[in-house]
Amino acid sequence: MQAQGVSLCLLGVMLFLCSVHARGLRRCLISMDMRRMEESFRGIKNAIQAKDTFQNVTILSTSETLHSIKPLDVCCVTKNLLAFYVDRVFKDHQELSPQILRRISSIANSFLHMQKSLQRCQEQRLCHCRQEATNATRIIHDNYHQLEVRSAAIKSLGELDVLLAWIDKNHQGTSAA
Amino acid sequence: MLPRLIVQLPALLSLLLGFRAHELPRPSSVWFEAEFFYHVLHWTPIPNQSESTYYEVELLRYGVEPIYWNPIRSCSQTLVLSCDLTMQTLDLYHSNGYRARVRAVDGGQHSNWTSPNTRFSVDEVTLTVAGVKLEVHDGIIFGVIQLPRPKMAPAGDTYESIFHNFREYEIEVRKVPGRYKSHDKIKHENFNLPVPRGVGEFCVRVKPSVSSRVNKEVWSKEECIVLTPQYFTVTNLSIFFTFVLLLCGALAFFLALQLYVQRRGKLPTVLVFKKPSPFSLISQLSCPETQDTIHPLDEQAFPKVSPELRNSELHGSTDSGFSSAKPSLQTDEPQFHLPAPHPQAGGTLGKGAPRLPEDSCSSGGSKSTDSGICLQEPSLSPGTEPSWEPQAGSDSRDQLDSGIGLVQNPEGQPEDVQGGSALGPVSPLGPEVAAGEDPAAGAFQGYLKQTRCPEERAAEAGGLEEESSSTDGLGPKFKTCVDAEVDWPLPALAKGYLKQDPPEMTLTPSGAPAGQWNPPTEDWSLLGLTRCGDLGASDWSFAHDLAPLDCVAAPGGLLGSFDSDLVALPLISSLHSSE
């Protein structure tokens, strides 16, 4: 009888610890139709990337930033990049073609939807930004500022496929096809 | 003014010379055409290129430090307008892509660089399959989509691993020479298609896609298969063998049924006539009687038949084969008159017909086979066949007669006999025979068996057959029977004989008016007599078998011997059945 009680107590403690740890490891997943954004980008890719004359320069710098991001920092980095594009890139780009502008607007609206999903995760304290995430975000901002605004905006729009692929990879399992 | 122009002139000349160094135009367009691990860079030639013009290609890994343009020497060949960059872009599916550029070079001159408009990434790869493998089984086309397996692909980089999720395939089928018809999209590499009606050549092509991607998709090469009519399929063979088994089973069943029916129809052993044995021949040879004889019966030897039996239903029973109602033996129907056998009767009654020993019918020494009808002398049957003829002598026939007794017509007129034409030759014998008959022997029991010898029987059978053919079909045909049995045992029902017991016996037919013994109806008697006459030679052969029995008067056994002979006479069986 005493042995059973002790075992039950131990089991309860283990479950509690596991739940706490799992809460920390719980990822903030985004439910988003990535295919729709990819189709929109495909429509502007040829026009946007053709205007990118600085081919040996990258803003997102995936080898130093995105490829080194750990799962715990995914939520924070995703949130920061979405804010970067919505607050800087989409506003700095001056598009004259309505067809391209419509597709860029579609992508921007999808980014706003993802920001709202991440805000709920932040309220649940699931989107804690560590130093590594902050450093990655700062590098990207520095790369963007090294170029002329219009060229930087063009280049950032041209790198949307990289960002979408990274989001799809890190948030796989919830993103709808 | 002039010194300024002289100083600026070399600068102008140098600019002109430098400009001419880059006179070569650059390729107008450069683009990638890529499939799964097959990445080829294409460019357009420059206008007015010479034979020495070649192109330089450089490649850049986008976003990977150190960022620099890597020249591809293998692509710098004269008059070559494309270059396979697969080996230089193996990590395309795990990176952000590549940038490439191309310029023309001719002699000392080179053009400007031309780059593709877009960054070369995994999105630029066109999805396709290596092929389709088709097989046909039981009228269904089974297909297996073969995914690309390029040799340059690094280990672990397969189509399924790179495009792990949401793979789909669109299938189209056509029957040569028709057009393609779309089939359902499948999500697996295996599929089966029901074969459309008919046989012929069918072609299939497949177009892959990834639903989460926007890559370009192209149809594979068509794969064709020829369908031929399959006759010897498993299904057809199984159906065929099942049908054969069912047929054999049905044949076996019907054969068994046939054998069973034949067995059922087999005659009982008691009715199976034995083949003539040598002993029978000897006995037949020793048969003293060489001619048919009518033996008058001793009336006292036979118990009188109760009057009730005269009109009993036994006479008219349908068991004997007559469908008529109970016939009355005392009807005014023409009576049968069978004269006593006369030696001069000839073939009518057989050669042995004329002689009629007195005790031929009454004694048990009668040895002839009994056909069922006993021909009796008038003196023998005064009380047995009173109704056979409307004569005054009917009172003497108060004894019941279970069989058909022929009462000799005193006048011996054949016309009084029904069907007397058949008995014409016989009738003259009547008076002559009657003279020698014992009136007391009129009563007789049952049928009288007439002794026959083999050759006479055969002749008589032939004569009877002639009679039967010559009559109108109504003439009764009598056979003289010899019945010497005093106490006849009750014959078996199936043996055809009806034994009419004397009044003290157990015969109590119902519904029979007392004191009456109606003669059998015409039908009844006719049938019975005809039946007896129809025995023919075969029947006489039966008589041959029973000759030893007939010749020896076996008390109690005579009727038994009768019975075996009378298997073909059903008319009397009815009498037994009522008993």
Automatic annotation (TrEMBL), chain A:
Transmembrane segments: none annotated. Gene3D superfamilies: 1.20.1250.10. InterPro entries: 4_helix_cytokine-like_core, IL-10/19/20/24/26, IL-10_CS, IL-19. Residues 1-22 form the signal peptide. Keywords: Cytokine, Disulfide bond, Secreted, Signal. One of its GO terms (cellular component) is extracellular space. Pfam families: IL10 (PF00726). It is found in: Secreted. The keyword Glycoprotein does not apply. It comes from the Eukaryota. Disulfide bonds join C28-C121, C75-C127, C76-C129. One of its GO terms (molecular function) is cytokine activity. Immune regulatory cytokine. Belongs to the IL-10 family. This is Interleukin family protein. It comes from Tursiops truncatus.
UniProtKB/TrEMBL annotation, chain B:
Residues 314-333 have a biased composition (Polar residues). Residues 310-437, 454-475 are annotated as: Disordered. InterPro entries: FN3_dom, FN3_sf, Ig-like_fold, Type-II_Cytokine-TF_Rcpt. Residues 1-21 form the signal peptide. It is found in: Cell membrane; Cytoplasm. The chain crosses the membrane at residues 237-257. One of its GO terms (cellular component) is cytoplasm. One of its GO terms (molecular function) is interleukin-10 receptor activity. Residues 17-113 form the Fibronectin type-III domain. Cell surface receptor for the cytokine IL10 that participates in IL10-mediated anti-inflammatory functions, limiting excessive tissue disruption caused by inflammation. Upon binding to IL10, induces a conformational change in IL10RB, allowing IL10RB to bind IL10 as well. In turn, the heterotetrameric assembly complex, composed of two subunits of IL10RA and IL10RB, activates the kinases JAK1 and TYK2 that are constitutively associated with IL10RA and IL10RB respectively. Belongs to the type II cytokine receptor family. Interacts with IL10. Interacts with IL10RB. Interacts (via its cytoplasmic domain) with JAK1 (via N-terminus). Interacts with BTRC; this interaction leads to IL10RA ubiquitination and subsequent degradation. Interacts with STAT3. This is Interleukin-10 receptor subunit alpha. It comes from Tursiops truncatus (Atlantic bottle-nosed dolphin).
